[in-house]
Design goal:
elongated; 8 helices; single chain; mainly alpha; 4% strand; 3 strands
Amino acid sequence: MRKYREFGKVYKNPRRPFEKERLDKELKLVGEYGLRCKREVWKVALTLAKMRKAARTLLTLEQDSERRQLEGGALLRRCLRYGLLDQDHMKLDYVLGLTLQDFLERRLQTLVHKHGLARSIHHARVLIRQRHICVGKQMVDVPSFWVRTDSEKHIDLAPTSSLGSGGPGRVKRMKAKSGKKAGGDGDDE
């Protein structure tokens, strides 16, 4: 018995594929935040568009509307939890002012570089993909992982990482192994 799962697209292609200003802006973001391709920019842009659309529809409702209170509160709490808005700006109007940079600043890759665990933004991506980084006790190997504000202080090298307090890496183990073999042959003669 097969179970087919249908997932929607998580990104949206731009309407005009060869618009010079947009291409330059995207290329700058890809370089600044160490993204793999422009599709990662489009993913974040779609997330931002969905949040802004939800805020716009809620702002059209009356102030004391039950739906606006419930859904608006949930949207604002989510923005606060992920560090997109601070406590002073807890209004739906400020959700409309969010930018792509606000979202890209909350990615694990960016935060690993900002915390000084990596030498560059590209090095941060490599460390994450090679499973050297954990958030709390959870190993995370996805550079686009959104870090919550309460989890931000728990970003650290993984306990199993050879870069941290873990055991020696593959090269060091192989050198030690070959050193024992070379030393063992000399003792027998």
